[in-house]
Amino acid sequence: VRGRQSNVMNSPVELPGSPMEERPQPSLSCPMVAAHFKSMDPSSSSLRVSGDSVVVGEQEYKMDQVFKPNATQGELFNKLASGIANSAVSTGIDGVVIAIGDPEHARAGTLFSIDGMMPRVAAAIFRSIAQVEGVETTIKCSCVHIYTVGEHEREVARDGLSLDSRAPGLVMGDGNICGASEHFVTAVGDVLALRKVMLKVASMQHFG
Which pLDDT band, with edges at 50, 70 and 90, does 6 fall under? Predict the structure, then answer.
């Protein structure tokens, strides 16, 4: 969904299925799709919300949930990402939270703000680990920035935790990205420190 200050999280890039397709209950094989509009022009005819649906032009798309503009980051996390963080520890199943929208609010705001998904997910993971007895755990963090360059919009990947602007791009191929630095973390504070580096690296580059 593309709209002013819109976030669609924990979803594939494409809207699911055909307009108004009846969606099954969210599960590991069926990601939850939600929308959060922090502001919207009430007179807009091209983008509006109707219950748990988002209407784009004449097409209506069913969401698992549409959050109100005043929804907090805590509400979004509890509904969309807390289960992903907990299951990553308890079952070992990978999880992903994707925010789609304008960079300032969708990526930086929802994911990486001090009150956003990244710090909350880290806290949830460390809480879950603390409840597991007799198991030694190791946690490493990496960050990859993918953006496009040139008139042909060639994709480039760079290490989001390297302050060396002259470092070569990462190797991309077969759905994998290799060469990103790995940083061991033992507490939420370590993750927050890496977050500062990540934001500084992002400010040094132009991401399309």
Answer: very low
- Compute the distance between CA of residue 67 and CA of residue 180 in angstroms, rounded to an integer: 35
> What amino acid is encoded at 62 in this protein?
K
Burial profile 103-123: b = 16 or more Cβ within 10 angstroms, e = fewer: eebbbebbbbbeebbbbbbbb
Location of structure tokens 């807009």: 44
Q: Which H or E run contains 45?
A: none
Q: CA–CA separation, 159 vs 165, rounded Å?
A: 10
**Cα(76)–Cα(105) distance, rounded to whole angstroms?**
14
Task: For residue 169, give the nearest of 158, 182, 179, 153 by alpha carbon.
Answer: 158
Measured CA to CA, the distance from residue 144 to residue 201 in angstroms comes to: 11
Position 16 pLDDT exceeds 70 = no
Q: What is the pLDDT of residues 164-205, one digit of tens each?
A: 878 878 888 777 888 999 999 999 999 999 999 988 888 876
At 86-101, the pLDDT tens digits run 888 888 888 888 777 7
Q: Which two tokens stand for residue 140?
A: 């490493």
φ/ψ region of 153 (left if φ > 0, alpha if ψ in -120 to 50, else beta) reads left
The sheet carrying 59-62 orders its strands as: 47-50, 53-56, 59-62
Position 188 scores a pLDDT of 94
Q: What are phi and psi of 116, to 5 degrees?
A: -90, -160
